[in-house]
Specification:
The protein is an alpha/beta fold. Helices cover 39% and strands 17% of the residues. The chain has eight helices and seven strands, in the order βαβαβαβαβαβααβα. Strands 3-2-1-4-6-5-7 form a seven-stranded mixed beta sheet, sandwiched between helices. α1 runs parallel beside α2 and α5 runs parallel beside α8. It is globular and about 50 Å long.
Length: 255
């Protein structure tokens, strides 16, 4: 892995082996179920872990998620909560969670159950055995409908066209993503919106990280609709073009 020479890398001496950032926006009771299953799997794998439950919320919202995740944290000292009034969308939430994490390795996953919680242990083990800097999943099977699957294929095709060095990547938006802390510290993540998964992969290209991929199944969420608005399609395209032709100058929405 080639890291930027100006970057200072510090491994936390007392942090856990693995920090798992769970994005819980409006997950409510789904978060309780997901965390219970994930905690059991991490314990059975004998991993030294912490969970960072991100439950940022809009002012005036009736979202019960912050209260629910605080209850979970009160019952488990390995859980910490990030619950602040939102200043951005998914990218802002993800960065807030990663900044709060103290582990030697960092994982990010959505907390709505569409991606199996068991992927965390599986992907982390691949990272360890393969000596990778970052490992992510790709959705080999999708059950979330033709519309989102078609949009995803278009995203990935455009990503490979604009960034030919990414030809080996499949499904750039898939989670979980697991990375070594030194890799995360070298990244310059700026995105506050839905582009953040692509931004991580662009940073992996820039830093010449050793990246691995693992297949997963993406389930349909039967209990709530997707929070990704149609405007996210144009947002994604705009961001891709900025990163391709203006390098590290972010679009106005990210400044």
């Amino acid at each position: 892995m080639e890291l930027a020479r100006h970057t200072t890398l510090v491994e936390p001496p007392t942090g856990p082996e693995l920090s798992v950032v769970v994005l819980c926006y409006r997950a409510e009771e789904l978060a309780r179920e997901f965390v219970a299953q994930l905690t059991r799997e991490l314990r059975e794998a004998h991993l030294d872990y912490e969970l960072v439950l991100v439950a940022n919320f809009h002012a005036g919202s009736d979202d019960r998620t912050p209260r629910i995740v605080r209850e979970l944290a009160a019952a488990n000292p390995r859980i910490k909560v990030v619950a602040r009034v939102k200043e951005g969308m998914m990218g802002w939430d993800m960065r807030a969670g990663l900044e709060a994490a103290t582990g030697r390795h960092l994982a990010v996953i959505d907390g709505d159950g569409q991606m199996p919680s068991s992927d965390i242990v599986k992907v982390y083990q691949v990272l360890q055995v393969g000596g990778y800097d970052l490992v992510k999943t790709f959705r080999a099977q999708r059950h979330d409908g033709w519309y989102r699957a078609t949009i995803s294929r278009f995203y990935n095709l455009l990503f490979r066209v604009l960034f030919p060095a990414s030809a080996s990547f499949r499904d750039i938006n898939s989670k979980p993503k697991v990375m070594a802390r030194r890799a995360y510290q070298a990244m310059q993540l700026l995105s506050n919106d839905w582009f953040t998964d692509a931004e991580i992969m662009l940073e992996a290209l820039r830093l010449k990280l050793k990246v691995g991929e693992v297949s997963t199944i993406f389930y349909k969420n039967e209990r709530r609709a997707s929070f990704v608005p149609p405007s996210a399609i144009w947002e994604f395209l705009r961001n891709l073009l900025y990163y391709r032709f203006r390098r590290r100058v972010p679009p106005p929405s990210q400044r």
